[in-house]
Structures are given as structure tokens and as C-alpha cells.
Automatic annotation (TrEMBL):
Signal peptide: none
Name of the protein: ROK family protein
A Pfam family it matches: ROK
Family to which the UniProt record says this protein belongs: Belongs to the ROK (NagC/XylR) family.
Gene3D superfamilies xrefs: 3.30.420.40
Domain of life, per lineage: Bacteria
């Protein structure tokens, strides 16, 4: 388990702390959060255990116990543990499914297990939704009434808040990235073809590079979304086409979400978003019919980056 910051550093914090746990595709990020001022005091990171529930719980227990000890020694109130889960979670804290990502977490009573093991309240929600909550309260969405966040990582996650609160109790729309935007034969894991998530995600971009034989043409440049964006910026014409297609697909998705949610702010997060920082003007479509006459939207890239999920998971206790 690796540590990003240092708990011994002098820092001014309030008395109310929470632990936020963001379960990612390769890493699980566990943060100690001051939820009143939206600061991450410390982060511990471990590889995400996807197959063995015992090891998953053991890995996160080390970080939780470290933060509990810190709170006790500094007379701070640790009010709970929040999770961002890549799947659907019921109100009773049972994980319905992670669609095979966490093999052991099917109909899994994670809330009850955590509360029994650590004697602290536990709250769970979908990972993209807690990222949105973090952005709405502490990030690019702060100060906006209606905030839509698209997390562009391995897949495409979607979350929506109104006045700093999740728009509904359960993550019924967490598969919102799986909308059909074009007719092609590219099959998404959801079973559809022409799906936004299969085209406008890091996986989609890398698969597109595979289809043009990137490995053969550029054997010294591994296929990653970051490398493709770098090559685009360096003037590689094939990378330029790949990124142009990516942006065109994402723009169709954004236009669709605008007419569904009428957000005041759209935040692009996840690992791919940084590559789009200089392309934001391409996502505005003033020629299209909008939700109402004077509708305006602002589109930005997350500055919280990986901390958004940690902050949002902890903030599940701030909004209740």
C-alpha cells in the first residue's frame, strides 16, 4: 500500500472527518477527508483486489485502521466510511452487481460487513455518482445548480446532481454511458453496438488504434489513450484522426445528455479528460435546439482528478 501525503504534516482541519474509498479498475484509493472544507488530508492506495473478498477487505482495513488511529490521537470525529462502487447498490448497502468487475461482489452486503468490522457507519453509491458529488461540492461544479459529470476512463461513467445533491436515491441511470450513438459493428460489453461507452472511453480509443494496426505501425509507442493524445499533439496524422473521431462521438453524447438533463455545468473527468483540455470549444453546439430559449452550459475538465471519487465518497455523509 502506497501513501501520497503525510499524516504528520501540520494541517488545519475541522473536527469532522470521513473516509472516502474509490474502487478503480486497477487501484483502490482510500482517503481521509475533511468534509467541511473539502480537503483530502491523506491518501493510501492499494491494487484493487477483484477476485478474493477476504483480501479486498484486508487491504482496505489497513488504511481504515490507520485513519481511525489518526482521528483518535488528534481528537477528531470520524463519522463514517463512504464507498464508490463500480456497479449498482441498493439502499440497504447490498451491492447488487459490479457486472463481473469485482467477482466476489455479487449480492454482497458490503455495508453490513464494514460496519461490523470497523464499528463505523458506512454508505455506498455508484462510483461515477460519487465522482459527480465530489465535483459538485468541491470541484468544477461548485456554484452550479445542475451538474453533469462524465468520467472518461476504462469505461464512461455518468452522474448528475441538483443543488449539490444526487438527483435520485439510487443509481438507476448509472448505465447512462451505454446509449447508441451510431450504426457500426463495434460491440460494447453491454451487448449493444454503436454504443457511446465503446467509442468515447480509453478502451474505445485504444481499440480504435488496434483497428488501424497501431502496434505494427508504431511498435515503439504502446497503445494507451495518453500516448495517442500525445501523438495527436505531435502532429501524427493517424492519431489526429483517432482523436477527432473520439471527440465527434463524445460530442454526440454530450448533445444528447444536454437534452436529457439540461445541465448548467458539464465536467469531464477520468484519465482521458486531461487530453481534451484544449478541445472544449468543439463540444459546444449553438446551432442545435436547446432545452429552453436562454439555455447556456459551461463545459470544463476536472481539476480534482483522482481526488473527486474520494471526496464524493466521503461526502455521502455531508449531504445526508
Amino acid at each position: 500500500m502506497s501513501q501520497i501525503s503525510n499524516l504528520t504534516s501540520p494541517i488545519s482541519i475541522s473536527k469532522m472527518l470521513a473516509i472516502g474509498i474509490d474502487i478503480g479498475g486497477t487501484r483502490t484509493k482510500i482517503g481521509l477527508v475533511d468534509i467541511e472544507n473539502g480537503s483530502v488530508i491523506d491518501v493510501l492506495i492499494s491494487p484493487t483486489e477483484t477476485k478474493d473478498g477476504h483480501w479486498f477487505l484486508a487491504n482496505i482495513a489497513m488504511a481504515i485502521n490507520t485513519f481511525k488511529t489518526y482521528a483518535e490521537r488528534n481528537n477528531k470525529q470520524l463519522i463514517g466510511i463512504g464507498f464508490g462502487i463500480p456497479g449498482f447498490v441498493f439502499e440497504n448497502g447490498v451491492v447488487d452487481s459490479t457486472y463481473g468487475f469485482l467477482e466476489f461482489m455479487e449480492d454482497y452486503p458490503l455495508k453490513a460487513i464494514i460496519e461490523r468490522q470497523h464499528q463505523l457507519p458506512c454508505k455506498l453509491d455508484n462510483d461515477a455518482r460519487v465522482v459527480t458529488l465530489g465535483e459538485a461540492l468541491y470541484g468544477e461544479g461548485n456554484g452550479f445548480n445542475r451538474v453533469l459529470v462524465l468520467t472518461l476512463g476504462t469505461g464512461l461513467g455518468l452522474g448528475f446532481t441538483i443543488n449539490g445533491k444526487l438527483n435520485e436515491a439510487l443509481a438507476y441511470a448509472h448505465m447512462g454511458g451505454n446509449i447508441t450513438i451510431t450504426s457500426n459493428q463495434i460491440k460494447c460489453y453491454c451487448g449493444k453496438t454503436g454504443c457511446l461507452e465503446s467509442l468515447a472511453s480509453a478502451t474505445g480509443l485504444c481499440n480504435a488504434a488496434e483497428r488501424i494496426n497501431w502496434r505494427t505501425k508504431y511498435p515503439d509507442i504502446p497503445i494507451t489513450a495518453e500516448n495517442i493524445f500525445k501523438e495527436r499533439n505531435n502532429g501524427n496524422p493517424e492519431a489526429e484522426l483517432l482523436v477527432a473521431d473520439f471527440i465527434a462521438y463524445l460530442k454526440i453524447g454530450i448533445d444528447t445528455y444536454i437534452n436529457l438533463f439540461a445541465p448548467d455545468k458539464i465536467v469531464l473527468g477520468g484519465g482521458v479528460a486531461k487530453g481534451l483540455a484544449n478541445d472544449l470549444e468543439k463540444f459546444y453546439s449553438n446551432e442545435l435546439l436547446r432545452p429552453y430559449k436562454n439555455y447556456k452550459v459551461s463545459i470544463g475538465v476536472s481539476k480534482l482528478e483522482e481526488q473527486a471519487g474520494i471526496l464524493g465518497s466521503a461526502a455521502l455523509f455531508f449531504i445526508s
